[in-house]
C-alpha cells in the first residue's frame, strides 16, 4: 500500500471509527481517531508504542500486536496510562492483512457521559452509527424531562404554599386569621412555650361604619393591622378573629408589666384620629390580657375566654384601656 493509499485509508477509518487506534506490527501507532486524540491529548501521538499508552486487562496475556491479532474479534477491556479523565475503555481488534497490523476500535462504554463532559465532546465526535449517540440523546431527553418535572414540582409546591398561606391569612388586613391563631396557640402549648395573649376589641368602630360607610371601616381595619404589627415582634402572632376583634400572641413574653405597657401603647396608637377621603375616623380599643403561666396547664379556649372577660371589664370601666385577667394560677376548665 502506497503512502497516499495509507492516508486515504486512515481518513476513511477515522470517518467510520473516530475512536480507533491503528497499531503497526512493531507496536507503533500508525494513526489515531480524532475523538480519541481529543481525549488523550499529547499522550497519544503517532509513532508512540501502543503498549506504552494502553494496558489490555481482559482477556489476559496480551502484550504485543501479535497477541492482539490472535484475540481479534473478542471484547477487550483496556485501561489507558497517564490519562486522568479516562478510567477504562471497551474495544475490539481487527487484524489487517499483510503488514497492516491491527485496528482497535475503542469506546468509552458506560463512562461515555462523564467523557463527554470532561472532554467537551459533541455528536460530531462520534460516528453516526455509534450507539453512544443514542445513549446521549436519551440522557439529554431524560435531563430535559427531569428538569421540567423539577420545575413543575416547584410550581406545585409554590401553589400549595400560596394556598396554605391564603388559608391562614385574613384577606382584608393581611394578618393571620382565626385558623392560624388556633394553630399558633396549639404549637406554643404543645411545646411548652410560655406566652402572653391580648384580646383587642375596637371601640366606636360601628359608628365609623354607620356614618362613613364600609369603605372607611375597611380603611380603619387595615390601619389597625399596621399599628399592631408595629407594636409586635416578628415571632409574635397577630390575628384578626372577627369583624373588629384581634388577638395577639406574644411568644415567650409573660411579664405582666411588659404586657401592660405594650397594651397601653396599642390603645394610645389606635386612639389617634385617621383620615379617610377627607373625613376623620376616630376609634379606640379595649384590651383583655391573659398569661399562659397562670394556667396549670394552659388551655387555648380557657385563655381566650378569660381574655374576653378581661376585655369586657375594660369596656365596663370606660373603654380605651387594658386589664389583666387575674386567675391566680387556675387549673384549665375552672
UniProtKB/TrEMBL annotation:
<dbReference type="InterPro" id="IPR029787">
    <property type="entry name" value="Nucleotide_cyclase"/>
</dbReference>
<dbReference type="InterPro" id="IPR052155">
    <property type="entry name" value="Biofilm_reg_signaling"/>
</dbReference>
<dbReference type="InterPro" id="IPR043128">
    <property type="entry name" value="Rev_trsase/Diguanyl_cyclase"/>
</dbReference>
<feature type="domain" description="GGDEF">
    <location>
        <begin position="193"/>
        <end position="327"/>
    </location>
</feature>
<protein>
    <submittedName>
        <fullName>Diguanylate cyclase (GGDEF) domain-containing protein</fullName>
    </submittedName>
</protein>
<dbReference type="InterPro" id="IPR000160">
    <property type="entry name" value="GGDEF_dom"/>
</dbReference>
<dbReference type="Pfam" id="PF00990">
    <property type="entry name" value="GGDEF"/>
</dbReference>
<dbReference type="InterPro" id="IPR042463">
    <property type="entry name" value="HNOB_dom_associated_sf"/>
</dbReference>
